[in-house]
Amino acid sequence: MNKTRLEAFSDGVLAIIITIMILEMKVPHGVEFADLKPLIPKFLSYILSFIYVGIYWNNHHYLIHSLTKVNGKILWANLHLLFWLSLIPIATGWMGEHNFAKASMTLYGAVLLLSSIAYFILQRTIIVNEGESSLLAKVIGKDLKGHTSSVLYIVGIVASFFNEWISGAAYFTVALLWLIPDKRIEKIFNK
């Protein structure tokens, strides 16, 4: 299998994930702006999850771009990542439907943490496949952002048992960390 097919399949799955998330938001029955108020938690959870899926899509592009060959381990590691990402709509829907209740924040954080672990596994699988001196290995380096994200997810999960606002702040902070583009990646891959 070539990397184009792998990327196309992954892009399709990610597009479906976003589509499922937006389909969870129902049109209000009223005609007044006040009728939109119950949708605010759902919309906020959708925005956060849309950002996360977008971040994964963007970073996944660079992972696949770095590949010179695809093997079975990469295919399975990629499917593992897509599995955890496919659970984002459920966690997002539950969180938005129940106004960021503690249990929903715990589940959301768990899905995010497991998605990040799956991404790390895919990343490491590609680096092993391509070699420790590969372009991707050089770009990733010590992966400070990745490790910081995992710590913040764990903080968010633990905090969700006590205060859902702290939990939400941790998840939002991770999204902000990844929204800031890493110019090194584009610079290295554009060479």
Automatic annotation (TrEMBL):
- Would the keyword Ion transport turn up in this protein's UniProt record? yes
- Pfam families xrefs: TMEM175 (PF06736)
Alphabetized InterPro entries for the sequence: TMEM175-like
What topology does the record note for this protein and the membrane?
Multi-pass membrane protein
GO CC field: membrane
Name the reaction it catalyses. K(+)(in) = K(+)(out)
One GO molecular function term of this record is:
potassium channel activity
* Ranges that cross the membrane: 6-27, 39-57, 77-95, 107-127, 151-180
Main localization, broad class: membrane
Annotated localization = Membrane
Q: Which UniProt keywords apply?
A: Ion channel, Ion transport, Membrane, Potassium, Potassium channel, Potassium transport, Transmembrane, Transmembrane helix, Transport
Assigned protein family: Belongs to the TMEM175 family.
According to UniProt, the name of this protein is DUF1211 domain-containing protein
Source organism of this protein record: Flavobacterium pectinovorum
